[in-house]
Amino acid sequence: MIGHPRVHLRLTDSTNERARTLAGAGAPHGTLVTADEQQAGRGRQGRIWTAPPKSAVLMSVVLRELSESHALLPFAAALAVCEACECEASSPTCAIKWPNDVQINGKKLAGILIEGRPQEGWAVLGIGLNVFLDTDDFPPELRESATSLLIEYAAPEVEVMVDAVVDHLEAWIDVPAEEILAAWRSRDALRGRTVRWASGSQEGVAAGVDDSGALVVDTAEGRVTLDAGEVHLSAGPSDASR
């Protein structure tokens, strides 16, 4: 069962770091690490994830013996966060910006970071979800692109959201790949939008994801697929308001 055992920390460097240490020491599947505050929280591609104390869901889960759909774990986690927000916070419908940024009204609400050692049979799934942050709590450079449940609609207690995310993650984690893909595609925030990658030197129109979870893009030269670990996406000129 995901969420048991649980380690809660008032202050830590990163819940993913703590969970990785526990996983390396043999912590069982489902071990949950949460924190009130992180000093070195991070997202994909080394980005910093910051939040005032007790204002966000900061959690990491140790996962073992993953099913054949484990390659879509980032998609399943994003779906779990979407459903948790819609059910517990009565939030507007959430969308997902490939591969796993959860958005409301085009602004980032939550992020997901997966790390692990496949050769040792484990992965760590980290989730950061903005709950009680107000606009002034974000760095100036993020105030136009980031949001929270408090800003958008309503903010339950952080602990309520932790429980909700855990429950929905439990429900999604072993769902067949085709069901995960279908649900994710229904929330695709990029489809039909201009995207750029390779430091902005290439661009095309997002055309969904293939069965492996790679982003499909139509370019002037033809259709290409992009891997989340190899590219950085930014909005094209027609999407400057995103």
Structure description:
By secondary structure, the protein is an alpha+beta fold. It has two domains: 6-185, Bira Bifunctional Protein, Domain 2 (BirA Bifunctional Protein, domain 2, 2-Layer Sandwich); 194-239, Roll (SH3 type barrels), CATH 2.30.30. The protein is 22% helix and 28% strand. The protein is built from five helices and twelve strands. The strands form two sheets. It has a seven-stranded mixed beta sheet with strand order 1-2-3-7-6-5-4, sandwiched between helices. It has a five-stranded antiparallel beta sheet with strand order 11-10-9-8-12, with no helix packed on it. A hairpin with a 4-residue loop joins strand 8 and strand 9 (202-209). Helix 2 (73-88) crosses helix 4 and helix 2 (73-88) packs across helix 5. The protein is globular, with a radius of gyration of 17 Å. The chain starts with 5 loop residues before the first strand and ends in a 7-residue tail after the last strand. 41% of the residues are buried.
Can you give me a brief rundown of this structure?
With 242 residues, the protein is an alpha+beta fold. It contains 5 helices and 12 strands.
